[in-house]
Design brief:
Glycerol-3-phosphate (1)-acyltransferase; 7 strands; alpha/beta; seven-stranded mixed sheet; about 240 residues; single chain
């Protein structure tokens, strides 16, 4: 209980203290210094992500960073065990990136502002037209060189097993030409309860697989491709969740 209280107290304290940096980013944006703004936004948000993750008392082991292409945008595709997944991917994978997130995140002040600064998009799962527009915006970000992260299960799984992957996200890769980089996360659901009622220390493993280039993928092959990708991600989870 004490760890949970301290996580919320120190977490929000850290976010509030980051507000002057957000004002600085807004200043650079208004001055048209977008490259500098993007670099500082990525650096600052990564520090916050690591800070919030470490507050749980957890540790993470990252394997496969050498598999991430140095140049150009990529689409990180990850399983979604728990709330810490986004913090792990953003804080410990150094390539700048935004997230395909849900619109409900917009109710959290400061967090939503940081996410907007790193080019996240916010999908309303109850509004098909709005969701399609967000996917198109994410495709444009990828074409502009901003990497993106998607959780194709479509929801937080809260366990070691990986649910079936939805299909619509694949358009992000096929329309942008960005390579897919699979990410496997094991143990994150133990660090933070799904309902936010419990924070605990956990050992988390994150495996980054070699990139996949789907530019020649035909519509008829999409289901098979997605199944193979899910199997690749799940294989690393099973090997480390024992």
């Amino acid at each position: 209980m004490l760890r949970t209280f301290m996580w919320y107290f120190l977490g929000w304290a850290g976010l509030i203290l980051s507000y002057p940096m957000l004002l600085r980013l807004k200043y650079y944006e208004l001055r048209g210094r977008t490259d500098l703004k993007d670099r500082l936004a990525n650096r600052g948000s990564q520090r916050i992500a690591r800070y919030l993750f470490r507050l749980t008392g957890s540790t993470v082991t990252i394997t496969g960073l050498e598999n991430i292409p140095d140049q150009g945008a990529v689409l990180f595709v990850s399983n979604h065990q728990g709330h810490m997944d986004s913090l792990i991917i953003h804080g410990y994978i150094p390539k700048p990136k935004g997230f395909i997130s849900i619109v409900e995140v917009l109710k959290y002040p400061i967090i939503r502002t940081w996410m907007k600064q790193i080019h996240c998009v916010f999908i309303d799962r109850n509004n098909a037209r709005q969701s399609s527009g967000c996917i198109n915006q994410a495709i444009e970000y990828l074409k502009q060189g901003h990497s993106m992260v998607v959780f194709p299960e479509g929801h937080l799984n809260d366990g070691a097993e990986t649910a079936c992957f939805q299909r619509g996200w694949l358009r992000l890769a096929t329309k942008s030409g960005a390579p897919i980089v699979p990410v496997s996360i094991s143990g994150s659901y133990k660090a933070f309860a799904k309902d936010g009622s419990r924070v605990a220390s956990a050992q988390v493993d994150c495996v980054i697989s070699k990139p996949i280039h789907p530019e020649k993928l035909k519509k008829a092959d999409e289901v098979e491709f997605i199944d193979k990708l899910r199997t690749e991600i799940q294989s690393h989870i099973r090997s480390q969740a024992v």
